[in-house]
Amino acid sequence: MRDAVILAVLGMGTVMILLYVINLMILVLGKVFGPKQTKKTENPKQGGAASSPAAAAPAQAAAPTEDEAIVAVLAAAVAAYLNTSPDRVRLVVRPIQTSAAWAQAGRLEQN
């Protein structure tokens, strides 16, 4: 009985140590071969003021994109449903697609 417990502990310990080593290897490989960090270059038109948030604000204040318009409509719809102000709607999260498109189409056909 004692030998079985020792064997089980050694086996589980070996597996845990090897899993930890594999985890470290994945982390190191992720750092070595992962996406490279790009440095932001200064915009010559702004004269080196690209790092200030005030200089970047006019560029970001362009016309809203289609996604932003959709988010605004969704926020208004949620606010109307909840009888609150649209200012109180802070986050709209798209549902995660958990199945393939063909599976969803099959479910729609059955309904």
Automatic annotation (TrEMBL):
Region annotated Disordered, chain positions: 38-60
Keywords noted in UniProt: Cell membrane, Membrane, Transmembrane, Transmembrane helix
InterPro entries: Na_pump_deCOase
Biased amino acid composition, Low complexity: 46-60
A single GO BP: sodium ion export across plasma membrane
TM ranges: 6-30
Pfam families (alphabetical): OAD_gamma
Main localization of the protein described in the UniProt heading: membrane
GO CC terms, sorted: plasma membrane
Annotated localization: Cell membrane
MF terms (GO), sorted A to Z: sodium ion transmembrane transporter activity
Stated name of the protein: Uncharacterized protein
Organism listed in the record: Intestinimonas butyriciproducens
